[in-house]
Amino acid sequence: MRKPLLISAALGAAWALPAPAPIVPLVARALGLPRRTSDTASVALTFDDGPHPRGTPAVLEVLREAQARATFFLVGEQVDRNASLAAEIVAAGHSIALHGHRHRNVLRLTPGQFAEDLERGMTTICDRTGVAPTVYRPPYGIFSTAGLEIVRRRGLRSLLWSRWGHDWRARTTAQAITAEVTTGLRGGDVLLLHDADHYSAPGSWKRTAAALPHVIAAVEAAGLRAIAI
Hints:
Mean pLDDT: 93
Low-confidence stretches: 3-12
Helix content: 40-55%
Number of strands: 8
Largest sheet: 6 strands, parallel
Number of helices: 9
Oligomer: single chain
């Protein structure tokens, strides 16, 4: 009985090998999963989980006023529900990227299920916006080994993040989000925020929208620009 258990444990470890990459830079580096960009004069603003009927317009308005650009990692099922907003993101000059069709932990999907979700998300976003995403970030930033290989075979680039505001939490504040995502800011950082509460604490987008002007101000104070990837 011991040998099958050891084999099963080894297979499980191999399957989940990339999973710690969002929080363990050494794992991300070893697997070639970028957490930063090479542009040392800028930081990349990114937003996950949208579009959202209230959160996305609020974030877009802040970005418009600040003349800043960002990348929105869109979820296919939310694009289906809010197609005009997805198109509005593109019309405003921002970049769009893929966050899957459904917001599910990749470790729980078979390779076939993951590939189907990836393709469905790609097709949905392309059909609704006219733009085919070239960059992918998995839900929760978690890859399986098979999922990472499928993404690479599909020709998509992956991007994680180097700083995040934990803005999806129920008990955070705009001030806490700003402090967490900007303290120690460096050129090339990738900032992770959320313009939607579909998969997080209800109303969390309000705190993100409130924090965003201060985040952008901190970026500028550091002599950097907020850009899309």
